[in-house]
Amino acid sequence: MLGLKTCLYAKSVLGNVTKCVVRTIGRKPYLCALDGVKASSKCEIIHEEYEGLSFIYFNGQQKIKMTLKVNLLSRYFNRPWDELEALANEVVQKDISDLFEIVMPPFSIGG
Predict the structure, then answer these.
(1) Which is more confident, 30 or 65?
(2) DSSP collapsed to 3 states, 30-41
(3) Domains in the chain: boundaries
């Protein structure tokens, strides 16, 4: 749900999203964030190893970076299976700015 939420937000800001760099740990459940991007866009998706969760969306010259707030990593990852539906619903209900640090041009966002 985290990947889906970021992709929908990126599309609302950038319009057509052409590429997404997903920076996260290279194993489940972290890689499940890619599924949300895949479900909501046909953009090119690149995975980079990273200790956290970050999405960088591109549309030509424009980009937006969203990084899951550090204090939420343990809330949404490595949780028991029976908690996942409630956590997914929680993500849907929360405002994007409550979940992610968002950086957009003209600020430097790196990679």
Answers:
(1) 65
(2) CCHHHHHHHHHC
(3) 2-103
Position 11, amino acid? K
CA 108 – CA 98 distance, rounded (Å): 21
Pairing between β-strand 44-49 and β-strand 62-68 as defined by DSSP bridges:
unpaired
| DSSP bridge pairs for 54 | 23, 67
The answer on pLDDT for 106 being more than 80 is no
pLDDT band at 78 (very low <50, low <70, confident <90, very high): confident
Helix (H) or strand (E) holding 22: strand 19-24
Query: Could you tell me the CA-to-CA distances from 11 to 14, 40, 92 in Å, in that order?
Result: 5, 9, 16
Q: For residue 111, which of 33, 40, 49, 69 has the smallest C-alpha distance?
A: 49
Q: Residue 66 and residue 109: Cα distance in Å, rounded?
A: 10
Q: Is the pTM of this model over 0.70?
A: yes
Question: d(Cα 79, Cα 110) in Å, to the nearest integer?
Answer: 30
CATH class of the domain defined by 2-103: alpha beta
